[in-house]
Amino acid sequence: MDSIHKISKTIVPMMQILLEDGTLNGNPMPKLGKEQIIEIYKTMVLCKIFDDITVKLQRQGRVGPYVTIRGQEASQVAASFAMDDKDWMFPSYRESAALIARKMPLRNLYLYWMGDERYAGDAANGNNFPVAIPVSTQIPHAVGVAFGAKIKGDRIASLVFFGDGATSRGDFHEAMNFAGLFKLPVVFVCQNNQWAISVPRNRQTASETIAQKAIAYGFEGIQVDGNDIFAIYKVVKDALEKAKNGGGPTLIECLTYRLSDHSTADDAKKYRSQEEVESWKKKDPIDRLRLFIEKNGIWSAKDEEQLLSECEGKINAAIKEAEAFESPKFEDLFKHTFAEMPWFLKEELDELKQVYDGKEPEMTNKVEKIEGSFP
Ligand SMILES: Cc1ncc(C[n+]2csc(CCOP(=O)(O)OP(=O)(O)O)c2C)c(N)n1
Ligand SMILES: [Mg+2]
């Protein structure tokens, strides 16, 4: 018992390169040119502004419930920059920043948060799966695509994002087991943002780290400072290369923090302390990179000013486009599940049509029909 405990204390490495004060700690830097670093910074700022504006739009009733990204920009943006366009990304509801970094048109992203899913799987979104709302369900999907790529001999990998809470679900363990056994080209990126709504990380698992769970499934697990773009880029790039060279999967645990509420339907002040939030604000991934680029003379206050107005311009244009877009028809609610519409959906559709025609719907109550005739 004792030896197992000792192993778990030291078994997974932890990678960090960029410190909170914007200096480097001496670990080897990834291959990233000046332009790419600036591009990552600009994308993170775009994501931050997208987040601020979208929360306000929700409060005004112009978008539906929205899931925040503040604090997690580095984990999502740097990991996305490490991917090739041909690789497949599997997002949860938290991954708007990854979708922006992977060039999903902002208009499509706004349509999604406005409740219109028609463009969620659009080819223009790139090789990004539609957002998964049920926790952890996207993990086996990513493994399935990796399995397909391996069978076909395609040199691509899949990368799946999920939270610390998702690691308590069966999907996660089934997917990890299958990926390890078949040595599939998949990179598991757990954004451990310390909370699953109101459940803290220490109530999620007795394991000392999430990364070490990979060991049980026969592959490598690594922790990374999830607010440090250089460490994330390096670790994800290496894992993708390994996957494409037949080396199998990797589990990466990004140690980060959700600075905002879980979503626009949450109030995090009810369950966590302001001191904790303040301590993580000091590790802010965007402030940290800005210090680095300023110290290195590749960014100025004027550049920042220009960037902020460019980002606001892009976002406002996308909102305008999405709001002007023709709304989906209510009939669309009933499509895409069954090849042939079953009787009970036809009845509901008829009732809804009556509502839209301003009539009091003639409600049918045919519960007895359900027995024996459910498709
Ligand atoms: C299968 C399922 N169960 C419960 C929920 C409700 N729910 C939404 S988010 C969430 C917490 C997930 O936490 P975590 O995996 O850490 O991701 P985070 O939201 O922190 O990014 C829960 C329980 C859900 N969406 N799906
Ligand atoms: Mg979480």
Tell me about this structure.
Helix content is 45%, strand content 9%. By secondary structure, the protein is of the alpha/beta class. It folds into two domains: 323 residues, 3-Layer(aba) Sandwich (Rossmann fold); 44 residues, no CATH class. The strands form two sheets. A six-stranded parallel beta sheet has the order 1-7-8-4-3-2, sandwiched between helices. The relative contact order is 0.15.
Q: Rg to the nearest angstrom?
A: 23 Å
Give the topology string: H per helix, E per strand. HEHHEHHHEHEEEHEHEHHHHH
Q: Any idea of the CATH class of the largest domain?
A: Alpha Beta
* CATH architecture group name of the largest domain: 3-Layer(aba) Sandwich
* Molecular shape: globular
Query: CATH topology of the largest domain, which one?
Result: Rossmann fold
Distance between the termini: 52 Å
The neighbouring-strand order within the major sheet is 1-7-8-4-3-2
Domain count: 2
Strand content: 5-15%
Mean pLDDT: 94
The main sheet comes to: 6 strands, parallel
Q: Count the strands?
A: 8
Class from helix and strand fractions: alpha/beta
| Distinct ligand kinds | thiamine diphosphate, magnesium ion
What are the segments in which pLDDT stays under 50 over at least 5 consecutive residues? 1-8
Regarding quaternary structure, what we see is single chain
CATH superfamily of the largest domain: Thiamin diphosphate (ThDP)-binding fold, Pyr/PP domains
